[in-house]
Amino acid sequence: MRKVVVAFDPGKKNFAYSILSKKGKLLDFNLLGNEVSQKEGLISNLKEGEILVKQYKKFVSDLRKILKIIKKNDAHFILIYERFIPRGLTKGNLSEIVSMLIGMLILTMNIRRCRKVVPVTAATWKVHRNKFELLIDNDTLSVHVSDSIGMALHYLLKENYLTLKKVKSIVKKINITNFKERP
User: Fold this and answer.
1) CA-CA to 121 of 20 to 30 Å: which in 6, 33, 105, 131?
2) 3-class DSSP state for residue 3?
3) Predicted confidence (pLDDT) per residue in 61-106, tens digit
4) Number of domains making up the chain
5) For residues 141 and 159, what is the distance between their CA atoms, to the nearest angstrom?
6) Residue 89, exposed/middle/buried by CB under 10 A (0-12, 13-18, 19+)?
7) What percentage of the chain reaches a pLDDT higher than 70?
8) Domain of 34?
9) Is 37 a member of any domain?
10) Residue 4 near residue 71, CB atoms below 8 Å
């Protein structure tokens, strides 16, 4: 069985993922949810149980689609996600909602095929990205998808699956590719 890295950049409205092979090939990526959830939030109502359950089921359904892609690639995976650390910039229920989504992510994805769960802080992987000039700068990708790809590449480099030269080559290729995100 192959090994892939599945990286998530969580957010209330934009919860992005990418799937990369351990050789750095981008297998899939997208934003979870739909146009409504990207305006209102994947979970927009914590007070009404029926609405919350409906939104939860939609989110889990999106995660299961990712698991199908992994299964299609006959792979075990390493789950990476960016820890959400509010820095006094947020008001309202953002911290609570993102924490709930990360919990749902781990509970849904941590099944037989998951070999490792790796929470990372933005400060850790972004400092590394900036130090080695690995910025993904592609207008056809959302910032959140770019960040999920960056986290995956950071992990692959840190764990010696890829060399710095190979990662730079992958970033260069990503930056010139015209991607189309699915709705």
Assistant:
1) 33
2) strand
3) 888 888 888 888 888 899 999 988 776 666 777 788 888 888 888 8
4) 1
5) 26
6) exposed
7) 89
8) 2-176
9) yes
10) no
In a domain, 46, yes or no: yes
Integer Cα distance of 125 and 28 in angstroms = 21
Structure confidence by residue, pLDDT tens digits, 147-168: 999 999 999 999 999 999 999 9
Helix, strand, coil shares of the chain, percent, nearest 5, are 45, 20, 35
145 lies in a domain? yes
**Cα–Cα distance between 164 and 125 in angstroms, integer?**
14
Q: Can you give the CATH number for the domain in which 47 is found?
A: 3.30.420.10
The two three-digit tokens of residue 94, written as one number: 């953002």
The 16-21 sheet, strands edge to edge: 26-31, 16-21, 2-9, 75-82, 114-120
Retrieve residue 143's tokens. 């910032």
Residue 183 included in any domain? no
Q: Where are the beta strands (DSSP E) in the chain?
A: 2-9, 16-21, 26-31, 75-82, 114-120
